Predict the 3D structure of the following.
Amino acid sequence: MASDLDQEIVKSTLDRILQQREHPKTICPSEVARGLPSEEMRKLNDGWRDAMPLVREILFEMKDNAEVEILQKGQVLPMETRLEDIRGPIRARLVLQNGSAAIQ
């Protein structure tokens, strides 16, 4: 289980990368994992792939808070979709609110 600090670092990296993309452009969760600071990668045990479960978990928490949309095959997944229901690659983008995409 990741510590609160690990989660905060991943969330901060996620927020930064999401803010760099204008709606409707999306990010791949692996971009976030690869963008983590090197000292964080060492704490998470080796390579960026080890961070992927935590990145996906945080993305789904953000989806549940209506901060991001999760897409699969170019389609936005329904709000009731859970992480454990997903097989295969996903992408994410900020939710468009009042004409602009922003993290709450």
Q: What stands out?
A: The longest helix spans residues 4-19. Residues 4-101 form a domain with the Arc Repressor Mutant, subunit A fold (CATH 1.10.10.10).
